[in-house]
Amino acid sequence: MQFGLLKSLKSAYSSLNPENVRQLAERPLDIQLVADSEESYSYMEAFFIPGRVSAADRATGLHTLTRATETTVSPTADLAIYEQGVSSPRGAFTFYLDSPERTVEDILEARPDLEVALARQFLAFRHPTVRRIVSRIARENAMFTLMTAMPNIIPTIIELPWAFGEYATDSAFLTINQVRMAFLIAACSGRAVGVAEQKAEILSIVGSAFGWRAIARELVGKIPLGGGLIPKAAIAWAGTFVVGRAVEQVYLTGDRLKRNEHHELYHRALERGREVATHLWETVRKPSAA
Questions:
Q1: Among 20, 257, 265, 269, which one is least packed by beta carbons within 10 Å?
Q2: Are 83 and 44 in contact (CB under 8 A)?
Q3: What are the chain's domains?
Q4: DSSP letters for the chain
């Protein structure tokens, strides 16, 4: 079993391209701010570029942010952010003075294509973006677990952003997708991206793959998640979520999850995994019932 998984992982690895992630992270940005006072401009800039960032990050951020006015803002800017209360055109974003985190969420919701570059350059986007990436890839892994048992309806229910082909086992897909997630988290965190650069984290991810099925069988028997495929999909979600949280903690704080923290987080994540898996299962069943 271990040899087969290693062979699948080796084949699946060719589908990974860290250079694509680097390009997402290094995309130049043009963000234009519009406010009605010097104080407001300064407040907006301080939110996106807080005093604790390095001199290099501050210089990059100030190069990316441009002060504009209602008449000089460029239509080709990646983002136009207007102070709350200032008249803004369609497609612009509002900077909520009393809740700037809401502005971040609005931007990430509308412009997911910019999320990695925004997270790499601005601390305000970092944690929300990583949170979205972890949840998204955990969902992909849960969906894949359901899909592999229902090949007749795969084309009608989901389009994954990438795929391995017929050679990939369930464990290989889940594992390599987690490695892709680690690339994205590193990019968002301002870290180097790649297998050599993230060797320790990737070895940990690959190592955990060997116990994946054994853990799944054990937990399905002990935890009342339901019958059929839902427990497996819930475990796929929870396992991927915990990997994402562990990698995030390493890159954003420099600390690793302790064994007991890892165990507790995994079991808490299973409940959320059950909810996600149940929702996905209902989505899967609708086309087949029609």
A1: 20
A2: yes
A3: 2-24+122-289 (no CATH), 28-111 (3.40.50)
A4: -HHHHHHHHHHHHTT--HHHHHHHHT----EEEE-SSHHHHHHHHHHHS-TTS-HHHHHHHHHHEEEE-TTT--TT-SEEEEETTS---TT-EEE-TT-HHHHHHHHHHH-GGGHHHHHHH-HHHHHHHHHHHHHHHHHHHHHHHHHTT-GGGHHHH---S----TT--HHHHHHHHHHHHHHHHHHHTT---STTTTHHHHHHHHHHHTTHHHHHHHHHHHS---STTHHHHHHHHHHHHHHHHHHHHHHHHS----HHHHHHHHHHHHHHHHHHHHHHHHHHHHHHH-
CA angle 163/167/283 to nearest 5° reads 45
CA angle in degrees (0–180, nearest 5) for 98-101-107: 120
Assess contact for 124 and 47: CB atoms under 8 A.
yes
Q: Could you tell me if residue 96 is left (phi over 0), alpha (psi between -120 and 50 degrees) or otherwise beta?
A: beta
pTM: 0.84
Q: Which two tokens stand for residue 103?
A: 């502005």
Using a CB cutoff of 8 Å and minimum separation of 24, what contacts does 205-209 make? Answer: 205/175, 205/178, 205/179, 205/243, 206/9, 206/175, 206/179, 208/175, 208/239, 208/243, 209/5, 209/9, 209/171, 209/172, 209/174, 209/175
Q: What's the pLDDT score for residue 216?
A: 54
> In angstroms, rounded to a whole number, what is the distance separating the alpha carbons of residues 100 and 47?
8
pLDDT digits (tens, 9 = 90+) for 217-250: 555 545 454 456 788 888 889 999 999 999 998 8
